[in-house]
Structure formats: structure tokens, C-alpha cells
Amino acid sequence: MKPQVIIIGRPNVGKSTLFNRLVGKKLALVDDQPGVTRDRRMGDADIAGMAFTIVDTAGWEDDDPETLPGRMRKQTEVSLEGADAALFVIDARAGLTPLDEEIGRWLRGQSVPVVLVANKAEGRAGEGGVLESYSLGLGEPIAISAEHGEGVADLFGALWPIIGAKAEAAETAAEFALSEGEEAPLGPLKLAIVGRPNAGKSTLINRLLGEDRLLTGPEAGITRDSIAVDWQWTDPKSGDVRDVRLIDTAGMRKKRNVVEKLEKLSVADARRAVDFAEVVVLLLDATQGLEHQDLKIADMVLQEGRALMVAINKWDVAEDPSKLFNGIRHALDEGLAQVRGLPLFAVSAKTGKGLDDLLRAAFELRESWSKRVPTAALNRWFDDALEANPPPAPGGKRIKLRYITQAGNRPPRFVVFGTRLDMLPKSYERYLVNGIRKNLGFDAVPVRVVLKSPKNPYAKD
């Protein structure tokens, strides 16, 4: 395993900016206001060939443990367990604060090696803060500018004696596995959990993991960044161990209610998470039922071509469960007619009810979403479909459908070739899509069909 490095510091010192600099992408949300980051976010970092896992954490605040900032601090403290090094980031321009000194005292009592990082040190404005930071007793500070990329080479020099040997060992092990001809394992199931605020998305993931990995609480909208957690699930029926990448996302409210810049950034980040997912679980709150916003989220997921499942959470406190389940089933079929029969589950993040069934179905749904149909079998179905229901002949002009091919998968895409396809009614296109889903094993997967006619060589441009 690659060495793990944790970024720690009080709010607004540039921890997420440093994280983004080291991973080479803008993964973590960054804003001028303090306290943007609330959950731990991991990324693959590389400095001059030294590869390691970097972990961004919430800003350290001196608050009651029961408050939201207090729970965020607890998450940061837990993140240090198992780490190989810590980057303690201070704001060189602001100078040392009492909170910096408190964090420094706590870090001195830990067994993890600490590298002191004086961020925002570009220009003369940061010189005083760099000199002042020596008083923390954590060795020579590394002066950097995470925003402009200055001082990264010095950071490499400070980290190499701590994690260099482990990074080299991890790289050697990976190269050896490739040289021995080991097959690369199949990628983990990328499973994103989406829904309105306070539906219990983070609580559900914590239940699956068996630990308080993500910050939760009664406050709506706690999650801001989309957080990915790699995990292994053991199927209790078969005993198979399967790799899963769980992706928690920010709650999505009605667009007109989203006015704050930070919430807009969070929702945009959640949408990007859907793009990278394979299967998406839309989590509903059993105490609130299915609302119009849920259907809008579901439609967005289907428009992106992701495989979609729906789970009704808080089932342990649902009133008249049978009526609720059947009502949501009917509303989904009516509101999302393009994918009738979406997988629907009753679950409880509190008790764990239904979660294994949900995961088992998610793997099956990914198989359908990734499926390819042999051309011969596809065209046998196509011929039968045309014979059972020939295309219409508007105005006496015959529409000829010649053949069909699968152009891609994940999501499944098909191309139908023929003549006068611009005259083919939408209802007949729906007939073909429904037939593909029903007869070729695509069930509730979003299927796309494109019509193509050969270009008329005699037509004028």
C-alpha cells in the first residue's frame, strides 16, 4: 500500500488548495469562507515520482464535541490513525494563532511524524509568520504557496525521509505484479448515493462501512464535497468478496432554493459524481415519501446514462409501509415511463435492513448496464419485432428498417439503419426501446437508440 499523508490545520489556511495542488486536480471544494471541508477526502498524489495517498480534513475548531464543528474535529483526529505523516498547515500571512498552538501541542503528543507547512508564504507578507512558526517546536517550517505551486520541491525534501522508502516499496511491488503477468482485477463497483438533504445518505454509507467514516447529524446539508470511500463487501449468501467505491454526495434541493454560492458548488460536485458513477442509488426518506424533486434527480441521472436504483430509507419508522411502497412504485412508473420497473428497495441505514439486497442488485444492474448483445442475436430480435409490429407507412410512403447494431455500452447504445427514418413516429421508437429492454436483458437500464439513414448521393447540398 502507498504511504498515507494527512493534511491538518485550522479553517481557511489553504488545506484544500494544497490537496488539489498535490493531486493535480480541483477535487476538493475551495472557497474564501472558512469551514468548507467537512469530511475526509482522499486522493492520489505524486511529487517528483514519489506516489502517496493524500487526505484532506476538516478545519480544526475548538468547539463542544456535540456541535457540528466539534464532530468535524473528531473526524480529523480519527484520520491520523494509521497515517504515515501529517502536514500541519498554518497561514504564514496571518501568523500563529492560539488555535495553531493548540493543534501543535496535540500533534507533539502523537506518534505520527509531522511536517510543518507555512502556506501563503509568497512575497514579504508571509516572512514573519514563517519565522514565528519555529516556536511550535515542530522543526523547520516549509514555506509554500499552494495556490501558485511554490515550495513543492521543498515539501518533497521534507517528506522523502519519512515516506520515501514505503513509496518505493509500493511502486516495486506494483511493477513486480505486472512483470509476473498478474491480471489486473476488475474495477470496483462505482456506486453513488444521491437524494435530497437529510435523506440519510452519509448514515447509510457509515452503516455499510461499520464505522463513523462520514460526518452525520440532524442538520440538513452537512455533506458538501462528494466523498469516495473504497470498501470491500462480503455477500452473506455466496461469501463472495466484492470491491465497491461508495460515493456520498451533497443533498440536492429545488434549484430555486439554492442561492448560496457554496451550495451551488456542492450540487455541481454531486452532479460530477454521478458522471463518474456506474450505478446510482436515489435515496428517499420514508417519512416524506416521493416528491417532485426526487423525480427531477432521477431524470438527471437517467439523462446522464447511469444505471438507477431507488431505495426508501428510514423504513424502520415508516407509517403504513405496504401502502407507501406501492404508492412510490406507481409514482415512479408514471413519472419515469422511459424506464418502468426501476429496482425499488426498502432499507434502513439505522438497522441495516435491506442493504445486502441493495448491493447484490447493484452488481446485477451494472452487468446489464455493461452488457453487449451479439449482432446476430440482436438482428434476430429485430426481425421478429418488425414482423410482430411493422413500421407505419405515412402518406403511403414505406419506412424501411434494415438492420440494427449495438454501438456501445455503459450505457447501452444502439443504431438502427434504414430509409425515411425521419418519418418514423416517436411511438415506434419507444416500441423498439421497450423491446430491447424487455427481451434483451436490459431491464431498467436506460437504453439509447439512434436512427441513421444513408445519405442520398443525388440530393443537393
Structure write-up:
The chain has 461 residues and is an alpha/beta fold. The protein folds into three domains: 4-179, P-loop containing nucleotide triphosphate hydrolases (Rossmann fold, 3-Layer(aba) Sandwich); 189-367, Rossmann fold (3-Layer(aba) Sandwich); 375-452, K homology (KH) domain (GMP Synthetase, Chain A, domain 3). It is 35% helix and 21% strand. The protein has twelve helices and 15 strands. The protein has helices at 15-23, 68-79, 98-108, 127-132, 152-179, 201-209, 261-276, 292-303, 321-335, 355-369, 375-388, 426-439; strands spanning 4-8, 41-47, 50-56, 85-91, 114-119, 142-143, 189-195, 227-234, 241-248, 279-285, 307-313, 344-346, 400-408, 413-419, 448-452. The protein has a six-stranded mixed β-sheet. The protein has a six-stranded mixed β-sheet with strand order 8-9-7-10-11-12, sandwiched between helices. Strands 13-14-15 form a three-stranded mixed β-sheet. It is elongated. The termini are far apart. The model is unreliable at 180-186 (pLDDT under 50).
CATH topology of the largest domain: Rossmann fold
Helix and strand composition category? alpha/beta
Strand order of the largest sheet: 2-3-1-4-5-6
Distance between the termini: 60 Å
Can you write the helix and strand succession as a string? EHEEHEHEHEHEHEEHEHEHEHHEEHE
Mean pLDDT across residues: 84
Q: What's the number of helices?
A: 12
Report low-confidence residues grouped into runs of 5 or more.
Answer: 180-186
Total DSSP E strands: 15
Family: Belongs to the TRAFAC class TrmE-Era-EngA-EngB-Septin-like GTPase superfamily. EngA (Der) GTPase family.
Organism: Altererythrobacter litoralis
InterPro entries: G_ENGA (IPR031166), GTP-bd (IPR006073), GTPase_Der (IPR016484), KH_dom-like (IPR032859), KH_dom-like_a/b (IPR015946), P-loop_NTPase (IPR027417), Small_GTP-bd (IPR005225)
Subunit structure: Associates with the 50S ribosomal subunit.
